[in-house]
Amino acid sequence: MNTPAKIEINAVYKTFNEGAKAIQALDNANLAIQPNEFVTFVGASGCGKSTLLRMIGGLETQSSGEIRVNGQPIDGPGVDRAMVFQHYSLYPWLSVTDNIKFCRQLKAHSRDRTSADVEKAAGRADALLHLMGLSHVPTAYPNQLSGGMQQRVAIARALMSRPEILLMDEPFGALDAQTREVMHDLIRHVHRIEGSTIVFVTHDVEEAIYLGQRIVLMAPRPGRIDTIYEVPLPAERNQDMKLSPEFLALKREILVRIRETSGMKTDLEQLERLSAQANQSEA
Amino acid sequence: MADSRSRLWTLRAGIPRKVYLTLALAGLVVPLLLWWFVSGLEGTNKVFLPGPADVLARTWSWLSADDLLGDMAISTWRVVAGWLLSAVIALPLGLYIGSYRAVQAFLEPLTDFIRYMPAVAFIPLVMLWIGIDEGSKVAIIFIGTFFQMVLMVAEDVRRVPMAQIEAAQTMGATRGEILTKVIVPSAKPALLDTLRVTMGWAWTYLVVAELVAANSGLGYAVLKAQRFLQTDKIFAGILMIGLIGLVIDQLFRQIHRLAFPWLSGRH
Fold first, then answer.
1. Among A45, A217, B27, B108, which residue carries the largest CB count within 10 Å?
2. CA-CA distance, B136 to B128, in Å (whole number)?
3. Tens of pLDDT along A7-50?
4. CATH number among 1.10.260.40, 3.40.50.300, 1.10.3720.10, 3.40.50.1000, domain B58-263
5. What ipTM does this complex have?
6. Contacts of residue A79 in chain B, CB cutoff 8 Å?
């Protein structure tokens, strides 16, 4: 690579608990993410994908190894890395606009407090309302919005400070399938317009392929990076591509690999024996 | 008809407003009628069970000749003072217990221990340390209220969703900013509910508090009436305490509705 990586993950290990109850959540994770890349993490539960994302966000610390952003080792959360959570992260006592502008109340964002900057921030909030399709509900409270609309607010809030990196932890996991499709196109649009580097965690393989330029497949016990796939789709995507042969082939390949690594094998013979027994006793 | 009848017994199903109000009214009127009926029965001794009319007459004579309003005022003052003192200390303390595991480890087991001790058992100590004037009554109410309140406040604070806190962290908020701009506003509705519930408990300690060398107040009046077997006055005093409690409770609920319009769901 000739461009310096935006995010470098070098020999990262993470152990939860100590002694006999220790769980290896991440085992030697290595990854470089390029500027403006859209990377998705998938994998069976317990593979450490959320843990790795939260470590990039500075919400969790690695047991060993290092994570660099723009070449600098990270030390806790920072305004250059915004995060979108699955739910319950909005402030229900603030209106949509005030949620989006929340970061303006914080000292970390107060270096620019001239009236021109304040005006620019108001303009930014307004632009985000339009970008996220929220311009008709600026004064609504989160409780008055559907799940999909709430996540639009959460994304707008994360984008408010123009973060270089957007970290998304299963942000659409609680939404219905139709709303999800709309959000997928929206987030791809955001990626194009904002030019941010996006790291997106999901358990939905289709979502991972449709959104990502690269897919990082992780495996559990111990949590680790298993395979990295390049997505063979053009930069411009549309929903029809989900039925293309390349898409389906990659989907099958990833699903098979997740099944192989998940360690959750059903004992079919045992099941058959049990149902045979049940039938016998009925007869 | 069959449909609406089954609806009444469907788990958690809504019922028409009219039905709700009728039932609520019946819930108040039926015991009153029952009381009136039983107290009027042949052979019911008025010393054991005075009727509604006796209690009403006694309340009137108390009001007109015996300074009922003064008793209500002094009792309300004692309860509110003890409760307010609890709140002033419990709110910040609970905020820290709920936010920092170290503070929790240091203070919560002790608080848990003390809250099981009966407030009434502290009366001799309170008299010894504080004396027998107003301060001691306030102190008893404080002891009865404070330790429960701290734990409830801490729990309210702990219930603030972690995602709200972490979202602020990723936006660069400092610890102080997270406390004041996220945790406190997020916990406010629950905290107001805690204040409402503990106010109710503070009232239940009134009679205990007025055991301590009081010569005024509703609790004192009830205790004195016991000495003279004025059962109707005991009834009147208890009902007055209940009534004041009900009014204050409704006041809190009203404030809750007005202060947190954002709690109401989708239109």
1. A217
2. 9
3. 999 999 999 988 888 888 999 999 999 999 999 999 988 899 99
4. 1.10.3720.10
5. 0.89
6. 171-172
